[in-house]
Amino acid sequence: MSYLAIVDLGSNSARMVVEELHDDGTYTELIREKQDTRIAQNMGDDLILKEVPIARTIAALKYFQTKYAGFKPEIRAITTAAVRMAVNQAEFLARVKFETGIEFQVLSGEEEAHYDYLGVMSTLNIDDAVILDTGGASVEIIAVANGKSIADVSLPFGAVSLSERFNLANDINQSDIKLACDSILAQYETLPWLFKNQHKPVILLGGANRSLARMGRTALGIMSVDHFHGFSMTIERVAAIFETIRYMTRLQREHIAGLEVTRADIIISGLLPLLNLMYTINAPRVIFSESGVREGLIAETIKNNG
Fold it and tell me: DSSP letter at 171?
């Protein structure tokens, strides 16, 4: 028996889990923590990580350490799109290591997509689908056929970056939603393999998509909104939820049942990658996964330790 701590620094939030790894190859989750660090905030076109989000992130990492230190675990710390793209990446990582001792691995877009695939396939029985992981500053799309990854890509837009670029945080001009959709579709059109995956369900990962699951389950009167692994919705239901919230003010969105207040400014932008993907491939439904990069890392660690 041993322990594994995974620290996952995304563009919008930082997450940490502690897993007890058993000798038979199984594992038990002991701790799960999340902090809304939003390291991608105000990066802008210059792609510079700013001081306030950096300080907020380091404080969260120090808090995580107080939670996992007693287990003396193996630590795997990974970070994704915002840090991957930042021109001051090296300075940020050096400061984090100096202040916390944590050494982060910066995942490439391909590595992030690979771990998403591993995480989904380890917990869902899926043969043919398109996986979509919507993060704060990137989206990963993986085409799956007969249970195998046949194509993947990481695109440089996400819930936070779209919200800031197209002014989708507060009270929204509908023309800005169209501009954002045009931008997303232009990037999807560069992926000829994507259009060959017609009528496949979309497997959803990422914070915005988790919010969609919670809103959908709340609307159905399901009490357990935080346990949605395998939960499914038709594209018509997804579209209906989006059509309801796209015309709301930010204050109104902050009071949507099932939506975290801290996501009211990025929920519109966070759902646009999904909406445009659904229509591009004529997806019949979406299926939500609670397993992604972190579970992919766990699966890899267990395999390597075995």
Answer: S
In this structure, is residue 67 part of a structural domain? Answer: yes
Residue 182: which residues within 8 A CB-CB, separation 6 or more? none
Residue 9 maps to which CATH number?
A: 3.30.420.40
Residues 6+ apart with CB under 8 A from 59: none
Give yes or no for residue 64 having a pLDDT over 70.
yes
- Look at residue 298 and tell me if it is in a domain: no
Which spans in the chain are helix H? 51-68, 81-85, 89-100, 109-121, 159-165, 174-188, 207-219, 235-245, 250-253, 267-281, 293-305
Mean of all residue pLDDT scores within the chain: 94
Q: How confident is the model at residue 306 (pLDDT cuts 50, 70, 90)?
A: low
Q: What domain count does the chain have?
A: 2
pTM over 0.85: yes
Q: How far apart are CA 92 and CA 54, in angstroms?
A: 8
- Let me know the angle formed at the C-alpha of 216 by 37 and 209, rounded to the nearest 5 degrees: 35
CB half-sphere exposure, 28, CA atoms < 13 A: 7
Average pLDDT over residues 172-179: 98
Helices H / strands E in the chain, number of each: 11, 11
> 42 — phi, psi (to 5°)?
60, 25
Contact 1, 19 (CB under 8 A): no
